[in-house]
Structures are given as C-alpha cells and as structure tokens.
Amino acid sequence: MRAGSAEPVGDSTEPGFVLGIDSGGSGVRVALARADAPYEGDGDGGEERGGGGGDGPASGLSWSSSVPTPAVVGDRGIDADSLLARVLPAARALLREAGADRVAAVCVGAAGMATLGDDLRAKLPDALASSLGTRRLALAADGVTAYAGALGQRPGAVVAAGTGLIALGALPGSAADADTADGDGGADGDDGGVSTARSTAGARGGGGWRRADGWGHLLGDCGGGAWIGRAGLEAAMRAYDGREGGSRPLLARLEEVFGPAGELPGKLYPRPDRPAVLASFAPEVGRCAERDPVAAAILRDAARHIAQAAEAVCPDVEGRVVALTGGLFRMGAPLLVPLRAQLAERLPNARVTEAAGDPLAGAVRIATALATDSLLLPLDAALLRVMDVGPVAPKP
Fold it and tell me: What keyword terms does UniProt attach to this protein (predicted)?
C-alpha cells in the first residue's frame, strides 16, 4: 500500500464517522465527528462529557476525563488497557448520541507514543476493531496530532508546548509516492483475535519528519511547562536557603500554592504526576515576571529553548510557517514577547502564527484523512503509523 493511497474504509462508499483521541500529560480527550464535515471542536471539552461545537454531531461531539491525569505507564510503556478503559465507554456514549454504531477510522495521539507506544501498537488494533468496528487506525505521537491540528497537512513547523515540549517540521506529501512495507506492528495473538493489523511506516529514513526535543522532563522538554515550573521552584528554594539566584516573589507563590517550602520535597517526589505538578507552577512564574527579574530571566531562557527547537525543525522553503500550540502559550506576553523576538532572530523569513486547532482537532483531521483516502502527512514507524484492521477469517 502507498501512503495517501488507502483502500476504501468499510463496505460503503460513505466515509461515516471518525474518532480522534488525545492522550497527553493532563488527561485524555475523545472526539467524534463526521468524516464529511469539518470538526469545529469545543475548546477544553468540559468535564467528563462535553457537547461539540456547532449543531450536533455534524460538527463534532467530545468527551474529556474529569481527572486531569495522564495515561498509566507500565513495563511496556503506555498501558493500553488503562487507556481503553477510559476511551471505549466514552466513544460508545458519543456514538449513541450521534445515532451511529461504528467508526470508520480512529487516530490516537499520545504523549510518549514514539518511545513508549509498544503496548498501544500491540493491543489497540484488535480492541478498536472489535468494539467500534474500526477499519483504519493511526497511532501518532502527540507532536504529530499537534502539527495536524495547527497546520493541517501544510508544510511548516509546529511547537507544541504544554507540560512538555516538542517541535516537529514536515513537508507533507513528501512520502506520498514512496512504497511502504508491511511491518510487524499488528495486534498480538493470531489465535482467536478479532482483527488483523497491517502497519505502514515511511520507507524513507525519518519518514519526512524533523523532530526536536520531546524527550520528557528528565532529559529535555526544554522551555516547556514542567521545565519553567521546575526552574521557578528552584529559584524559590534558593531564596528559602538564602542562596544566590533566589526569588522572594516566587518563594511567596510557592508557599501560597504548596504550603511551607521545606515540606515541598516530601509532597512532590512521591507523586506519579510530577511533570504536571511542576508545570502547574509555570503560570506563577509568568505572573511574577513583570516585577521579578529572576522570573523574567527564566522565561527568556524558555523562549530561547523554544526558538532553538523551532529552528532545528523548520523546513527551508519559501513561505514557511511556524505555529505555536498548547496551553503553555496562554501565559501570554511574559513568554510570547521574548519568544517572538527569538524567532525573528533565528527564523527571519518564517511567519509565526497561532495554531488553527489543538491536538484533539489534529487527531480528528488525521482520522478523517484516513477515512477519505487523503492522508498526505509523512508516515514514520515511531511518529505516525497507519494500520489497516479488519475481521479475521475463521480458522479451519
């Protein structure tokens, strides 16, 4: 099969419904939309259950988890069973509300997919085929769904910054005529499974994507929410100790948010969601930046890291665009002013724009492209893998 040249989905020429799933550092969201109508989204999706934007299912229905916790990570990476336990009930409820019983295509965008996605690749094809009637599945890194939400299938670069940070650049269509080989990323268990999965990965090295960072809060994500929050908390603890480089305003915010500074390590280190806890302090750094030179310097450093990531991935083409997406940029001027200055210096010919949509909208766009045989984004074994799933013939 060739990228962008998929077989028709299902037994009908109607594209039907598609499902987008966004699993990030702050929880899980699901959206259902018709493949023949634009998905408008609905902002943050509400709590537990949120209606879509526009008039009913034509423009989309969505759900988001009420508890802002990421998917469970186990020995095989992101735990497929725990993700499915959240997603499948939500998807069935959305289908009932839309008056449908199956989805033609699904795109799952997950933080850590590139390095922690083995269990998802093994289990999701069977589970989604049997539960939702899915015939085509895309497994994507959250940076890829952020790219699709921000720029669609246009060439450019996207910086997605929330709890973490990743930058991706692409020339969509560059792999569209490349032959792709069947992989071994299908569902486990040929005895009694309900679907077969054929995995398609880009034949060219790198799959047409350029990636920078996204290595997690211990090894990277430089300039992201957890990075800023940790730097702010460090400056607060320096002030608590009386060390050079401390910030009294940030110390005051730490104690307002978390309690006594000396008790913070005991509260923070046992938490399984440490990156999200660190990132929760990033807005406090932004609020202090106008009056605190230490906080302002943290954000200038963050802006430099973000611009470096964008520079590393942005394709050198005429009319290139850099889109900024993710909750971190809602911090506004304290971060965006130094960031735009850095981008103007490093990418003087690039147009910087806000994202057209978020990663959930990007997941819906990719699923729609699968269902309508119009996917142009480069395929890549780690970043964007497409699987054809369907009924298993009975064994003799």
Answer: Kinase, Transferase
